[in-house]
Write a structure and sequence with these properties.
By secondary structure, the chain is of the alpha+beta class. The protein is built from eight helices and six strands, in the order H-H-H-H-H-H-H-H-E-E-E-E-E-E.
């Protein structure tokens, strides 16, 4: 039984070490933690009884020692199960993609089933040799499980960072919209465009390092996965530094005094279908479909689009591209897919199809977000 004792000692060392890692990641719930500590205490008591009986009776052929060995091994299973319950609770509360979350939770359920299977084998063991064999199998299973569980902690951390990157990419769109508005008012935007390019490069690097870390965690290379994860977070920090520089430059040109007025609001929309802006606004629009601007001279810049023509004072573009439009009493309409539109000023936005929009009616009001799947009219600014 000496080998079996060593096996269970290794298991407890592993559990203690992994609990520290997981506890650093998040609070897993006090009730589950208390149950884990309770089972761990019971396990240690069973271990002491086994060691005492083993010392007294020398080998497991004595029934008393054999029974204590079983209780000892069962105690290890209890500790492992309670720890896995804590980890499962941690996953349930993690803000990661639901599909990935369910995939990881299914893995945990599989590990718990493995432990239960060994518990049955322990209970059904009738000889010391059978019990030793079960202990050896458990040891091998825990070696494999230990690697995977620690890798899963890394994966969860990586998917959380992915959420941060996605939000940072949304900031990139808002910065692009600010640049478009400044360009519409004749401000030199080259410093801002350079900063935005640098910002996007850091985010792209962060994504590449993040994917590398996920691949490494999935293959079981935890040390290298953590290295790539640190590189990813470092790139995100650099990107946030660029944001601070961007805002400093904004203050230098005092852009707020140029195009932010007490009667102005702003609106953003993304979806499929039709989006139409009417009013006195600066508009940054992109998508794949048909863009109509009236009057045509309201166009400031156009990039992309496969064809264009003018008719009855309107400019009509077909294809994929983006445009900045500025003027009073103008109309900007786009019909197609993956439409993204940002406008600042005062007017109305009509949406048909499905997607989401955000609107800040006036400077002192908060931004609100809504989904749409039918014809929706949105007022922004004094309209």
């Amino acid at each position: 039984m000496r080998k079996a004792s060593l096996v269970l000692l290794l298991m407890i060392m592993f559990l203690a070490g992994t609990v520290v890692v997981a506890a650093q990641a998040d609070d897993m719930g006090m009730n589950i933690k208390e149950k884990y500590e309770e089972e761990k205490e019971k396990y240690m008591e069973a271990r002491e009884k086994f060691l005492e009986s083993k010392k007294k009776y020398k080998d497991m052929r004595n029934q008393f020692t054999f029974n204590n060995a079983k209780r000892y091994l069962n105690g290890g299973c209890n500790v492992a199960e309670k720890w896995l319950e804590r980890f499962r609770n941690f996953l349930e509360r993690s803000k990661i993609d639901e599909e990935k979350k369910m995939e990881l939770m299914a893995e945990i359920d599989g590990h718990m089933a493995t432990i239960e299977n060994y518990r049955l084998k322990i209970d059904e063991s009738e000889t010391p040799e059978e019990l030793r064999n079960t202990a050896r199998e458990m040891n091998q299973a825990w070696i494999e499980m230990r690697i995977r569980l620690r890798a899963m902690v890394g994966e969860v951390a990586a998917y959380r960072i992915e959420n941060v990157i996605e939000r940072a990419e949304n900031v990139s769109v808002r910065l692009e919209n600010k640049i478009a508005v400044m360009a519409g008012y004749g401000i030199d935007t080259s410093p801002f465009e350079s900063l935005l390019e640098e910002y996007n490069e850091h985010l792209q690097n962060a994504r590449e390092y993040l994917q590398a870390s996920i691949n490494l965690f999935e293959s079981g290379d935890i040390a290298e996965g953590n290295k790539e994860l640190r590189k990813s977070t470092n790139e995100i920090k650099k990107a946030f530094g660029v944001i601070r520089e961007f805002m400093k430059e904004m203050q230098k040109v005092r852009a707020g005094n140029v195009f932010y007025g007490y009667e102005s609001g702003e609106v953003w929309a993304y979806g499929n279908g039709t989006a139409e802006i009417r009013g006195s606004v600066v508009v940054n629009v992109r998508g794949n479909g048909t863009l109509i601007v009236s009057p045509a001279e309201a166009i400031v810049t156009v990039v992309g689009f496969g064809s264009s023509e003018e008719e009855n004072g309107m400019a009509v573009f077909e294809g994929e591209g983006r445009a900045v439009v500025r003027g009073e009493n103008i109309t900007v309409s786009i019909t197609g897919n993956n439409i993204s539109l940002f406008a600042k000023g005062k007017g109305t936005l009509m949406l048909e199809g499905e997607g989401i929009y955000r609107v800040k009616k006036l400077p002192e009001e908060e931004m609100i977000q809504q989904e749409y799947n039918e014809t929706t009219d949105v007022c922004f600014g004094v309209c």
